């Protein structure tokens, strides 16, 4: 699996922008989770990456928005640190509720 | 040098939030560049990372905002792709104006 970080820059001042953000969020969350309002961590196969990229390109407005996709280093716990509100849930660990 | 991606999640609905974003942007841009409205790519030494982290923690509101710091894979060109508006400038290449 390939671990990706997807950062989506969109103006949420307009309803159209908020709609695109919801659409992008839905596409990303199908393969991972939302860690910030417009930042997502996803895990995909090579084939899924092709579909994911295609869907993102269709959902975004290329003349107004920006999407950046970073391949994350493994293991992710070692190369990411979070401060403040942390929305990440490690689904590979047992959930303590 | 360590290449980092810094994602800052802050509500820009309030003047206080916008002020914190400006402050965080200023701290990050001293070591790199703003690639999206609240996403920054920076390069720092181990020692600079300590100061940078400290400054970010002081600038953010830990009860309201989120900052995520990712160590990027090298070479960055190979592991990042940008779609739509791209604000990144490769300062290591000759600038063609």
TrEMBL record, chains A, B:
Q: Which PANTHER family match?
A: CRISPR-ASSOCIATED ENDORIBONUCLEASE CAS2 (PTHR34405), CRISPR-ASSOCIATED ENDORIBONUCLEASE CAS2 3 (PTHR34405:SF3)
What protein family is recorded?
Belongs to the CRISPR-associated endoribonuclease Cas2 protein family.
InterPro entries listed in its UniProt record: CRISPR_associated_Cas2 (IPR021127), Virulence_VapD/CRISPR_Cas2 (IPR019199)
Q: Where does Mg(2+) bind?
A: 9
Q: How does it assemble?
A: Homodimer, forms a heterotetramer with a Cas1 homodimer.
**Keyword Lyase attached:** no
Which prosthetic group or cofactor does it need?
Answer: Mg(2+)
Any one GO molecular-function label of the UniProt entry: endonuclease activity
Role? CRISPR (clustered regularly interspaced short palindromic repeat), is an adaptive immune system that provides protection against mobile genetic elements (viruses, transposable elements and conjugative plasmids). CRISPR clusters contain sequences complementary to antecedent mobile elements and target invading nucleic acids. CRISPR clusters are transcribed and processed into CRISPR RNA (crRNA). Functions as a ssRNA-specific endoribonuclease. Involved in the integration of spacer DNA into the CRISPR cassette.
According to the UniProt entry, what is the EC number of this protein? 3.1.-.-
Q: Which UniProt keywords apply?
A: Antiviral defense, Endonuclease, Hydrolase, Magnesium, Metal-binding, Nuclease
Identify this protein by name.
CRISPR-associated endoribonuclease Cas2
């Amino acid at each position: 699996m390939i671990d990706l970080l997807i950062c989506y820059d969109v103006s949420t001042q307009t309803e159209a922008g908020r709609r695109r953000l919801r659409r992008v969020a839905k596409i990303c969350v199908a393969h991972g989770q939302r860690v910030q309002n417009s930042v997502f961590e996803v895990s995909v196969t090579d084939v899924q990456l092709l579909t994911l990229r295609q869907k993102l390109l269709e959902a975004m407005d290329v003349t107004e928005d920006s999407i950046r996709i970073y391949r994350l280093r493994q293991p992710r716990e070692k190369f990411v640190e979070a401060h403040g509100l942390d929305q990440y849930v490690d689904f590979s660990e047992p959930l303590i509720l």
